[in-house]
Amino acid sequence: MNDEPRPTVRQIFDEHARYIWRTLRHLGIPEADAPDLCQEVFVTVHRKLPSFEARSSLRTWLYGICIRIASEYRRRPYVRKEMSLSQPAYEASEQCAVGADSALEQRSAVQHLLAVLDEDKRQVVVLYEIEGFSMKEVADIVACPLQTAYSRLHAARTLMLSALNAERRAET
Fold first, then answer.
1. In CATH, what is the architecture of 101-172?
2. pLDDT per residue as tens digits for the range 141-171
3. pTM score > 0.90 for this model?
4. How buried is 87 (Cβ within 10 angstroms: 0-12 exposed, 13-18 middle, 19+ buried)?
């Protein structure tokens, strides 16, 4: 462990709460469940902070906790039984009247594309493309060989591009 003082849970919360929220959402956690899972992450941080050895960056350690919390969430029986419904269809005139926020549309589009990926591929895309980790860091976080991480990224990009093309064809 390095000689820097260990951050407090409060400092971690102040500096990383938005990152944790965003990470959970990118890992497929519904908006309605994100506050509860954020709380679970910080309970885990509080419990495990004394054993944090700083062999990885704090963000990497937090991401690993988020992955485990999100994975445990998806294994819960009531989550597996839920069925996601598509957005309600709106008339074209209603869509124009609503004037949806462009940033919100972009976030929604990203969430939609991430939803076509399995958990392993989604983790790699989120870490590399969205959070900006190096591919070596990504491989370390998801505990796979570097080439496997690259392979997952390539497969994920292919799947997302196919989903985007299919959606565009359906619109025409």
1. Orthogonal Bundle (1.10)
2. 888 999 999 999 999 999 999 988 888 888 7
3. no
4. exposed
